[in-house]
Write a structure and sequence with these properties.
Elements: H1 2-27, H2 32-52, H3 62-83, H4 86-105
Helix pairs in contact: 1-2, 1-3, 1-4, 2-3, 3-4
Length: 109
C-alpha cells in the first residue's frame, strides 16, 4: 500500500506541472503564452526539487513541509481548475490531501 501511495504522490507532482503548463498556455496570447507555459512548471520544479524532494539539498520537514505542500499542490489544483474544470481541481486537491494524510500517518512523508 505504501508503494501505491508514493506512486500516487509522484503522479500528483506530475499533474501539478502539467496543470501549471496548461494554465500558462491558456492565460495569454502570443509569444508570451509559450514563455508562461514553460516558466510556471520550471519554477515549480526548482522549488520542489530544492525543498520538497526527499533528497533535495534543503528538504523541509514538519510544518515547513506542510506549508510547501499546500502551496505546491494548491497551485496545481487552482491551475487545474482554471485550465480544465473547477470540479477537477477540487477532486485533485481532495485526493492529494488524503494521500498526504496517509503518508504522514505511516511516517513516509
Amino acid at each position: 500500500m505504501t508503494g501505491v501511495s508514493l506512486a500516487l504522490q509522484f503522479a500528483a507532482e506530475l499533474v501539478v506541472l502539467g496543470a501549471l503548463g496548461a494554465f500558462g498556455y491558456q492565460t495569454i496570447d502570443g509569444a508570451g503564452r509559450f514563455a508562461l507555459m514553460v516558466a510556471g512548471p520550471a519554477i515549480a520544479i526548482v522549488i520542489w526539487g530544492v525543498f520538497g524532494a526527499p533528497r533535495g539539498p534543503r528538504h523541509l520537514t514538519g510544518r515547513g513541509r506542510r506549508v510547501l505542500q499546500v502551496v505546491f499542490f494548491g497551485a496545481g489544483a487552482l491551475a487545474l481548475g482554471a485550465a480544465w474544470s473547477p470540479v477537477a481541481g477540487v477532486v485533485f486537491a481532495l485526493l492529494v490531501a488524503a494521500n498526504i494524510a496517509f503518508l504522514v500517518r505511516i511516517g513516509r512523508d
